[in-house]
Every structure is written in C-alpha cells, then in structure tokens.
C-alpha cells in the first residue's frame, strides 16, 4: 500500500477547511493541535492558509480513558491555549483518527476550559476504525488498514507518513 503525500493532503485540507468555515460563516477560528502529530499538521495547515493565528496545543494524556491501563507517557507536556475557549469557534487538529478516543479526550479537556461556540475536527488521515461516533469535518484521506498495520507521522518538516507492521 502506498501512502499519500502529506504536503498534497495539507493543500487539499486547506481548501476544504476554508470552504467549510465560509459555509458556516466562521470568520475568526481558533486553531488547536493535539500533541504531537496534530501540532505538526496544524502548523503546516496554518502555513498553507497563510495565517498567523496563534496555535493552541493540547496534551490529552490525563484525559484518556486508558490512562490507568497504559500509565503516563514520559513526554507529557502541559496544554497551552493562548486564547479563551468560551464562545469561540475552534478548529481541533489531529494527525491520525483511529478509534476516536484521543478526540473524545481532547473535547473533554477543552470543555474544562469553557464552552466553545463550535468545534470543527480536522484530521490528516481517518483510518476508518472508529470505536466512537466521531468523524472529521475535514480530512486529508481515509484509509483502511489491516489489523496489524499502523500509520506513523514523522515531522515536523517535512511531514512524512510511514506504514508500520505490528509484530504478532
């Protein structure tokens, strides 16, 4: 399986996001990337959009429902939101949507900061493996992988996708 070129996906996503925001009459969205890959995608997307909007960052480690099973990742960093959440139109950006649990955790964290007017979900890839009823408003590509396959994004520049085979 050949993976799509992230730079091409970012260009397509910028166009789709612009159309989505215009359709919803959202003029001043606030951008938030989910650590780590979502931040890289958000930075590339903001660059493609020619936007100098501040970028908020979320680390959802403490909000994951598998925290007690998996423990704390050694590189947890605090979230940084340089703007109010209450009443804002947010664009939440992640790299790979798989089960939906990271997005659920991100929404839980965001609502601890306030009630946004709306949240637009943007993902580079949707792996079509959802366990929760969560789907992106803007997506670069949708892929179906085998049970032992995963996709890893490396970056931040250039962004590169790699297909990985898990050991049995």
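-> sequence recovered:
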């Amino acid at each position: 399986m050949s993976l799509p070129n992230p730079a091409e996906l970012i260009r397509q996503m910028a166009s789709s996001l612009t159309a989505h925001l215009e359709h919803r009459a959202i003029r001043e969205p606030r951008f938030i990337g989910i650590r780590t890959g979502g931040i890289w995608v958000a930075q590339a997307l903001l660059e493609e959009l020619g936007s100098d909007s501040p970028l908020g960052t979320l680390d959802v480690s403490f909000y994951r429902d598998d925290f007690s099973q998996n423990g704390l990742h050694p590189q947890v960093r605090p979230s940084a939101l340089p703007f109010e959440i209450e009443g804002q139109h947010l664009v939440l950006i992640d790299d790979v949507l798989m089960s939906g649990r990271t997005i659920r955790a991100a929404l839980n964290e965001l609502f601890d900061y306030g009630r946004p007017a709306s949240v637009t979900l943007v993902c580079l890839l949707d792996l079509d493996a959802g366990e929760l009823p969560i789907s992106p408003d803007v997506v670069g590509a949708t892929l179906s992988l085998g049970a032992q396959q995963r996709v890893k994004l490396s970056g931040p520049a250039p962004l590169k996708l790699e297909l990985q085979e898990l050991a049995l």
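The chain has one domain: 6-71+78-165.
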